Amino acid sequence: MTQIKICGLKTREAVLVAAESGVDYIGFVFAQSKRQVTAEEVLKFAEGIQTPKRVGVFVNEPFDSLLTVGDMACLDVFQLHGAETPEICSRLKRASGKQVWKAWQVRGNEQDLAIREYAGTIDACLLDTFLPGAAGGTGQTFQWNEIERFRSLLPGVQLFVAGGLNSGNVGELLEKYKPDGVDVSSGVETNGVKDIEKMRLFIRKVRERD
């Protein structure tokens, strides 16, 4: 079954709908962003909710701060979007006992040598669209035929696809490329706010393909 992550959650209502709809992961952005939240807010939004698993999104956060926020917000997964090295990923896994995902913006095969070094240090890779000056949340898709290249670079590592997904295109992605998981944010928003009906429709479209 395809794993679903809804990211950039900022209200308890959206968290509750995600949980009730059976998604696998709920994402909270701690990096500077229009969707940024604090550990205290995450605890409030997700109070009393044991599942889905909580994912924290970070960009070049100091190591000690990662551990602190991870504990405060009761995170299950660290999703790293910056220049975090394989050594940092491995160290974070050991120190926290939690999953570590590494995100890459898909640019071309000049990344290949560096990406191979992450094998064995991360639990999942997340592919997103390259846009200068943005670490994610672009709302645009990338060339999905690049997915197989990343699979070959990181064998045995779960692969999630982000970048411009919505209820209208996720079915094609799943049918043709069969990623382990999908990650959506702006594709389930209206005017920058999570839209409950769009969330439910996206989840339904994914489950129809499973």
From TrEMBL:
Question: What CDD domains does the record point to?
Answer: PRAI
GO molecular function annotation: phosphoribosylanthranilate isomerase activity
Q: In which pathway does it act?
A: Amino-acid biosynthesis; L-tryptophan biosynthesis; L-tryptophan from chorismate: step 3/5
This entry's Enzyme Commission designation comes to 5.3.1.24
Q: Which residues form the N-(5'phosphoribosyl) anthranilate isomerase (PRAI) domain?
A: 4-204
InterPro entries of this UniProt entry? Aldolase_TIM, PRAI_dom, RibuloseP-bd_barrel, TrpF_fam
Gene3D superfamilies per the UniProt record, alphabetical? Aldolase class I
Assigned protein family? Belongs to the TrpF family.
Question: Per its record, how is this protein called by name?
Answer: N-(5'-phosphoribosyl)anthranilate isomerase
State the organism named in the record: Effusibacillus lacus
